[in-house]
From TrEMBL:
Name used for this protein in its record: Zn-dependent oxidoreductase
GO molecular function, one term: oxidoreductase activity
Keyword Transmembrane: no
Record domain Enoyl reductase (ER): where: 21-351
Highest taxon in the source lineage: Archaea
Keyword entries, A-Z: NADP
InterPro entries: ADH-like_C, ADH-like_N, ER, GroES-like_sf, NAD(P)-bd_dom_sf, Zinc-ADH_QOR/CCCR
Gene3D superfamilies registered for this protein in UniProt: Medium-chain alcohol dehydrogenases, catalytic domain, NAD(P)-binding Rossmann-like Domain
Length: 354
């Protein structure tokens, strides 16, 4: 017998970022598992910037009424009759890249390039996301949480660890000893990017606001730089010069610092980007691309296998999830406003049913 569960729901957009006016905790019908799905009792969920895009209704007009949340961890409480590798009681985490699994890209192991892919909890719905007491996912979009990794850590890692791993390991082909510049190191992807680069024994330079520089050093960066300074690129260039320059720059900031990163890369260097939180209309001086032989790589999410690789290193305590704060569903608007403003934010924000 399926009952009622509570969820964070919005039925209209807030293009002015007034989240309090639209986010409501409501009761909805408990989901039912399709044959290939599992039902998950959510223990922890993490906020993601796509939640903000969803509430704005752009660049993608998400289905309404909407439940956001792409990053969840919890317990399997029901399995469909076609599920083979999961059972009731398994501790699991979401892999939010929903793809068709049959196209050429998917069967080539590139489900992130599937033209029919959707980000669960962002593009899905109505009423299908992670900010709910109970949710459902296909078996292929669920990974087991290794021993030694908590629900909170797994939820915080779900999309951001996956994204960072795919950016550096799969796309940029990071190698030991390289010099890596992590932009916005205090963000979710930034904190994981730093740790992955250190896992590969790279020299890591990370940028952040002045209040985050000490925390970046505690996380393991070799050099922390305030990218709000007018001459921040000069400081980075001086740091990197004895090492031969920047091999990889890891970007999710976009517009405001895009061309600066191109100027910093060495000949044959790589810029890998997964987002544009400051805007997408970036100025590009093409001379820094063609003359220096620069590689510019786009990167979106990754495979479930990549998520499991990252979780393995979490279980070995080589990578940890940095959690900034926790909120209950009733305070979801406050949590998302904090993420939007970013002041003092270091790591991931979690949402929990209670």
């Amino acid at each position: 017998m399926h009952g009622i569960v509570k969820a964070v729901v919005y039925e209209s957009y807030a293009p002015n970022d007034d989240y309090k006016s639209i986010l409501k905790v409501k009761e909805i019908n408990e989901p039912k598992a399709k044959p290939n799905e599992v039902i998950i009792k959510v223990k922890a969920a993490a906020c993601n910037y796509n939640d903000i895009w969803g509430m704005r209704g752009k660049p993608v007009p998400v289905p309404l009424p909407h439940i956001s949340g792409s990053d969840i961890a919890g317990d399997v409480v029901e399995v469909g009759n076609e599920v083979q590798n999961l059972k009731i009681g398994d501790r699991v985490v979401s892999h939010s890249n929903l793809s068709c699994r049959v196209c050429q890209a998917c069967t080539d192991g590139r489900e992130f390039d599937c033209t029919n892919r959707m980000v669960w909890g962002f593009q899905t719905g109505p009423l299908w996301g992670g900010f709910c007491e109970m949710t459902h996912l296909p078996e292929v979009n669920v990974a087991k949480i290794p021993e030694g990794v908590s629900y909170d850590e797994a939820a915080a890692a779900s999309m951001t660890l996956l994204t960072s791993w795919h950016m550096l390991v799969s796309r940029a082909k990071i190698r030991p000893g390289q010099v890596v510049l992590i932009m916005g190191g205090g963000s979710g992807v930034g904190t994981f990017g730093i740790q992955i680069a250190k896992l590969y024994n790279c020299v890591v330079i990370s940028t952040g606001s002045p209040d985050k520089l000490d925390k970046l050093k505690q996380l393991g960066v070799d050099y922390a730089v305030d990218h709000r300074k007018a001459d921040w690129t000069k400081e980075v260039r001086q740091i990197a010069k004895p090492f031969g320059g920047i091999d990889i720059t890891f970007d999710h900031i976009g517009q405001t610092h895009w061309n600066d990163q191109l100027t910093l890369l060495k000949y044959g260097g790589t810029l890998v980007t997964c987002g544009a939180t400051t805007g997408y209309d970036a100025k590009t001086d093409l001379r820094h691309i063609f003359f220096k032989g620069t590689n510019i790589l786009g990167s979106t999410q990754g495979t479930k296998a990549e998520l499991e690789q990252g979780l393995y290193w979490m279980s070995k305590k080589k990578i940890k999830a940095i959690i900034d704060s926790e909120y209950i569903f009733e305070n979801a608007a406050e949590a998302h406003t904090k993420m939007l403003i970013g002041k003092g934010l270091f790591g991931k924000i979690l949402l929990k049913p209670s």
